[in-house]
Amino acid sequence: MQKKVMNTTYHLAANELTVDILAALKKLYKGKKISITVEEEMDETEYLLKSEANKKMLLESIKQAENGELISVNFKKARKK
Q1: Which of 28, 30, 52, 71 has the highest local Cβ count within 10 Å?
Q2: Residue 31 backbone zone (phi > 0: left; psi -120 to 50: alpha; other: beta)
Q3: Distance CA 7, CA 34 (A)
Q4: Cα–Cα distances in Å, from 66 out to 46, 60, 62, 70?
Q5: DSSP the chain
């Protein structure tokens, strides 16, 4: 029988870290060895602009929106098709 391993990911800003979070982790994993990894998350815009193709398409879309070239979608009608 394979042992179940619990994985949990928390996404929060550094200023949201509190002793309560550590207390909750201690309670949740009482008596077990755990591993805590901290990594900085990439901003979504920064991530999307990394690719030249994405960057070109996004900047063109922003330009179109600024010029009033918008597309309206009626999701209720689209869903019925």
Answers
A1: 28
A2: left
A3: 10
A4: 21, 10, 6, 9
A5: -PPP---------GGG--HHHHHHHHHHTTTS-------PPPPHHHHHHTSHHHHHHHHHHHHHHHTT------HHHHHH-
pLDDT tens-digit readout, 19-65: 999 999 999 889 999 999 998 888 888 888 889 999 999 999 999 99
Give the tokens for residue 70. 């918008």
Domain ranges, ordered by start, for the chain? 14-80
Which single residue is written with the structure tokens 């999307």?
48
Q: What value does the CA radius of gyration of the chain take, rounded to a whole number of Å?
A: 22
